[in-house]
Design goal:
This protein has five helices and twelve strands. By secondary structure, it is an alpha/beta fold. The strands form three sheets. Strands 2-1-3-4-12-11-10 form a seven-stranded mixed β-sheet. The structure holds glutamine.
């Protein structure tokens, strides 16, 4: 399986290390041409406005839509989840999402006072709880008909799946626990 992690800005190294801990290899993707032949791509957390700007200047918008159409699975964490959505509540000026996953996501949903927090989550298909690390996190306000909710916190959707797309509003790559990465590889990439 060939996995890439978009490496323009944000927490991309941690994703690569987590895949490696599972015995999978993942490469850092810095140019659209490197998407060729990938089975899956992760768009990491970071700052969605900065990632969007860099994606635009390198020509990633059309390349990602095209590769996804050709069968590449995508997982967005936090800022990456924001970029996957069809609708962003509180989008920054001229912040364009990829519009691949039918959902509405609210940026900085927990407010400025709550910079970050950790909470135990129940995630569909995982045994036992998983530590959700939320950093200036969004939440998912709604998913479309084809969307499957994978986890909620305080009633809000924090993980969802739509076919070969997955969104988590928290940071599994910062926990040292590779179970969400394994879930992505086994259930989402593996079921394409
Ligand atoms: N608040 C950030 C944004 O809007 C996301 C934060 C994160 O990825 N940890 O992009």
């Amino acid at each position: 399986m060939r996995i890439g992690v978009l490496a323009l800005q944000g927490a991309f190294r941690e994703h690569i290390l987590t895949f490696e801990a599972l015995g999978a290899s993942a490469s850092a993707i810095r140019l659209p041409g490197q998407l060729e032949g990938l089975d899956a791509l992760v768009i990491p957390g970071g700052e969605s406005t900065a990632i969007a700007k860099l994606m635009r200047s390198y020509g990633f918008y059309s390349a990602l839509r095209e590769r996804h159409g050709a069968g590449m699975a995508i997982w967005g964490t936090c800022a990456g989840a924001i970029l996957l959505a069809t609708h962003i509540s509180d989008a920054a000026a001229d912040q364009e999402p990829l519009g691949l996953m039918d959902m509405t996501i609210r940026r900085n949903a927990y407010g400025r006072q709550v910079d970050s927090f950790e909470v135990e989550l129940d995630i569909a298909r995982l045994d036992g709880s998983f530590t959700g690390v939320f950093i200036r996190a969004p939440w998912i306000e709604s998913v479309g008909e084809a969307g499957e909710v994978l986890a909620r916190h305080d009633g809000r959707i924090v993980a969802a799946r739509q076919g070969d797309l997955m969104a988590t509003t928290f940071h599994p790559e910062l926990t040292g626990d590779p179970r969400v990465h394994r879930l992505f590889l086994e259930y989402i990439v593996g079921s394409r």
